[in-house]
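User: I'm putting together notes for a lab meeting next week and I want to include a structural view of one of the chains we've been expressing. I don't have a solved structure, so I'd like a prediction I can at least talk through. The sequence is below, exactly as it appears in our construct file.
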Amino acid sequence: MSGAEEAGGGGPAAGPAGAVPAGAGVGVGAGPGAVAGPAAAALGEAAGPGIPDEAGLAGARQLQEAAGDPDAPPKKRLRAAEAAEAAAAAVAAGSGKLEERLYSVLCCTVCLDLPKASVYQCTNGHLMCAGCFIHLLADARLKEEQATCPNCRCEISKSLCCRNLAVEKAVSELPSECGFCLRQFPRSLLERHQKEECQDRVTQCKYKRIGCPWHGPFHELTVHEAACAHPTKTGNELMEILGEMDQSHRKEMQLYNSIFSLLSFEKIGYTDVH
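Assistant: Thanks for the context. Below is the predicted structure for the 274-residue chain, given as structure tokens.
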């Protein structure tokens, strides 16, 4: 018996140096009960082309369940069905972009959209954007019920749920398309670009206060203002324009006052309509 076999106690001989047995976990302290993190599963490129990763399959199953939920609103079921088809196609092809696979993993379980601000999670780790989280709490309070996670039905509240900062940072780095110039920017920089930097953003003439109705891309603003006819109008013409603007403003104020009066009632009844 060779020295290697004696050291191994008669077991199978060791393979080539550096070889890792199939199915063995790679990592420090990976015990039998260790669970791979969601980020590692979502970013798992080691599966190779044509082999769908577990995170993509889980995201597709989650979207399919939301699409088939009879209690969900029609709009949510439609969005879930469309997102499930896209996720299933990406998983089946095995060549979906990383951001498309991350979308199904990091999206809110209620509205199925990427969170724009804070991200909350229930005790089982299901994600909810801040708007949906507040809506669930308020809806349960109106019904005098305990708010529950729409995915696992565990109890949720401000004390039970916590923010997931890792998901917030991951979402802020995902690329998003500018609605004006159609260029890709990280979500954390998109709002500033659309408001201050984009040359195609929609803007208004500086003479709008005296009735100029022009609005167009920012790169055309200088040319328009140089040729705008409103600064040269006579006083009578400007008075007529300002009168029309005041009348339109009064109609808007009447509408706002009627809405505020409705919302100022001491008690608003709630009717659950199925």
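A couple of points you could mention at the meeting. The chain is about 45% helix and 5% strand. Residues 1-52 have pLDDT under 50 and may be disordered.

User: Perfect, that's what I needed.
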